[in-house]
Amino acid sequence: MARYRGPVEKIERRLDADLGLKGERRLNGKSALEKRPFAPGQHGQRRTKISEYGLQLREKQKAKFMYGVSEKQFRKYFKKAANNEGNTGSNLITLIEQRLDNVVYRMGFASTRANARQFTTHGHVLVDGKKVDIPSFVVRPGQTIEIKEKSKSNPQVVRALELTAQTGLVEWVNVDKDKVCGTFTRIPAREEVVIPVEERLIVELYSK
Q1: pTM of the predicted structure, to 2 decimals
Q2: Domains 1-48 and 99-184 share a fold
Q3: 3-state helix, strand, coil in the chain (%, to 5)
Q4: What is the tens place of the pLDDT at every residue in 16-59?
Q5: Where are the alpha helices (DSSP H) in the chain?
Q6: What is the CA radius of gyration of the chain?
Q7: Into which CATH architecture does domain 1-48 fall?
């Protein structure tokens, strides 16, 4: 499946979840989900009963759109999560959290994961001092993430860091805002990752 490039707020309304796809617009209370908290389309306000399969599929779609991964990538993450020790659902979320684009977002260098993915593919991100332009690169504990020197004054990066005063930073990253760099200190526990996804339903979907 190709990456979705349409109106992201329609996705949030359809899935009835704040997936963090609009960044500052969401923080300012201007997101379409808040203004129109119902599904898009002519029949969006109708109440419909969702089947068990529909609920499971919706949770998978939430995770895919939120993290910006394709169906093929998502299946790979699930397969790896299932092969690792521990809870498959928890493994799945923590694996995706280690993606470079997600870590850039978590460090506050981008206001959305989509922006973080763009910065990465355009070569603005350094890992341990070396340019890495692969958004799916797996960041290991102890590795340092930095925005390239020429890009540190980018208005989007500056504004994203300013917004962290409202959003805060997660506990598994250590960030120096002045130097626009940070360290991925550890892999987070599932309960620390606050996202609107019930991964248990995703596991049930793939286990059929």
Answers
A1: 0.86
A2: no
A3: 45, 10, 45
A4: 777 776 666 555 555 555 555 555 554 445 667 889 999 999 99
A5: 8-15, 24-27, 32-35, 52-67, 71-83, 88-97, 100-106, 113-121, 155-167, 199-206
A6: 17
A7: Orthogonal Bundle (1.10)
